[in-house]
Amino acid sequence: MKERGWSTFQGLALSLMRIVLSLTFMLHGTQKLLGFPSGKVVQLASLIGVAGALELLGGALLCLGLLTRPVAFILSGQMAVAYFYAHAPRGFWPIANGGELAVVYCFVFFYIFAAGGGTVSLDRIARRK
User: Fold this and answer.
1) Confidence (pTM)
2) Which of 53, 36, 35 is nearest to 44 (CA)?
3) What is the 3-state secondary structure (H, E, C) of 57-92?
4) DSSP designation for 86
5) Which residues contact 105 (CB under 8 A, 6 or more apart)?
6) Domain boundary assignment for the chain
7) Distances, alpha carbon 17 to alpha carbons 11, 23, 84, 118, in Å
8) Taking the mean position of all CA atoms in its chain, how far away is CA 31?
9) Residues of the chain above pLDDT 70, percent
10) Which among 5, 3, 16 has a CA at the least distance from the CA of 115?
11) By C-alpha distance, which of 91, 115, 103, 83 is closest to 7?
């Protein structure tokens, strides 16, 4: 396959990863703010409520590929804070303290910050105009 073909595939794969990641991330926000699909609704004016708002709004923006880099950077930082605030006090190893998902989200969001939104994104459409 030509290099151009691989480049196209990489851009589409990045977009697909961004979309699936953001949809699963949004569920953390809907769980906190709406009690959907399961969970207890928290106060918006609380630390967990702010986290839920970032998860829902940031996830939606990432899903659309809108403001991808700044949103991914903020969400990467949110996941780093979540890890050190909620998980690290329970032990050093992420697998033992329940923080492996926060670590993975943190670094995948950081990768999206560096790589951009991929081929399918509103950012890309806006750049063309």
Assistant:
1) 0.92
2) 53
3) HHHHHHHHCCCHHHHHHHHHHHHHHHHHHHHHHHCC
4) I
5) 21, 25, 75, 76, 79
6) 3-128
7) 10, 10, 25, 9
8) 15
9) 97
10) 16
11) 115
| Phi, psi values for residue 15, rounded to 5° | -65, -45
Per-residue pLDDT reduced to its tens digit, 22-35:
999 999 999 999 99
Q: Decide: 62 and 113 in contact? Cβ < 8 Å.
A: no
Look at residue 2 in the predicted model and tell me its pLDDT: 52
- The span from the CA of 98 to the CA of 33, in Å, is 22
User: CA–CA separation, 25 vs 109, rounded Å?
Assistant: 11
Q: What is the number of residues in the chain?
A: 129
- Here the tokens at position 31 are 């769980």
Q: Which residues of the chain have pLDDT under 70?
A: 1-4
Tokens 């589409």 appear where? 12
Task: Report pLDDT for 30.
Answer: 97
Please state, in angstroms and rounded to a whole number, the distance separating the CA atoms of residues 49 and 39. Answer: 13
How is residue 94 written in tokens? 């992420």
The amino acid occupying position 84 is F
Structure tokens at 116: 């951009």
Asked if residues 118 and 13 have their Cβ atoms less than 8 Å apart, the reply is yes
